[in-house]
Amino acid sequence: MSAPSTPEPVVAIVVAAGSGSRLGASVPKALVEVGGVPLLLRSLARLAAGGAQHAVVVVPPDAADAFAAVLERAPLPVTTVAGGAERQDSVAAGLAALQQMLGEQEVVVLIHDAARAFVPAEVVARVADAVRAGADAVIPTVPVTDSVREVDDDDGSHVIDRARLRSVQTPQGFLRSVIEAAHAELAETGTPVTDDAAAAEYLGHTITLVEGDRRAFKVTEPLDLVLAEALASEEG
Ligand SMILES: Nc1ccn([C@@H]2O[C@H](COP(=O)(O)OP(=O)(O)OP(=O)(O)O)[C@@H](O)[C@H]2O)c(=O)n1
Ligand SMILES: C[C@](O)(CO)[C@H](O)COP(=O)(O)O
Which Pfam family, giving just one, matches this sequence (predicted)? Predict the structure, then answer.
């Protein structure tokens, strides 16, 4: 009888290098405090509670000191690396840092937006479990609740069946070998994507959808902070 295989460790890449121009705060969005706690630390706590053992935090190159000061309070071991101009560049920087840390060791990688600071730990665990169960690429999604129309070239529009639509959240989970190869291919071909599942799909991998949660919303605009503050005070 062969010994049971050891499950791969879970490492998070938390992209926090965006400026948050739509939020319009005086500090990078990941450092904006909600209930007195920066969004970045809230995200890290959720990832740790969901099973992440280490995090690579991708930070804005011009704010490294401010991030280092906040990360002294991180709830799990972290490595920091400077991000790039687009989210995709920041993910690539995080993957390169993982390569430096781990060589070729296979791990489950959870790629998460720092701005999705209230993602429940159960969603994090659900994504990691699906990767461990053999899925190539796993994303949490929620149904779309508005009616949706697509604008046509002639200024008209037509309705889209929302029953078939899903909003995509993070963390998105992959075996490291899968997402590293995908991002390398995108860089080679200069192909832009808005999320990492699209990167994996570009290489032909199947995307597995798991149940997300409305609380994993992305803090993007000032109104989102109202909901964030309400969730923070509900938690105490
Ligand atoms: N060059 C970039 C751009 C975005 N992000 C990160 O990717 C996540 C999703 O991006 P978004 O929330 O849209 O953040 P911003 O790009 O900062 O927002 P905006 O477009 O309003 O400037 C965020 O956690 C953000 O910090 C990043 O690491 N590097
Ligand atoms: C990855 C993502 O959160 C999935 O919804 C999203 O694509 C990133 O946000 P952005 O506003 O497109 O940068």
Answer: IspD
Whose alpha carbon is nearest atom 9 of ligand 2? 194
In this prediction the pTM is 0.96
Q: Which tokens sit at 46? A: 């959720």
Q: Which domains does the chain have, with CATH numbers?
A: 10-230 (3.90.550.10)
The answer to whether the CB of 30 is under 6 A from ligand 1 is: yes
pLDDT tens per residue, range 11-35:
999 999 999 999 999 999 999 999 9
Neighbour count for residue 109 (Cβ, 10 Å) = 30
Closest C-alpha to ligand 1, atom 18: 20
Phi, psi of 31 (to 5 degrees): -95, -5
| Ligand 2 atom nearest to 111, measured from its CA | 1
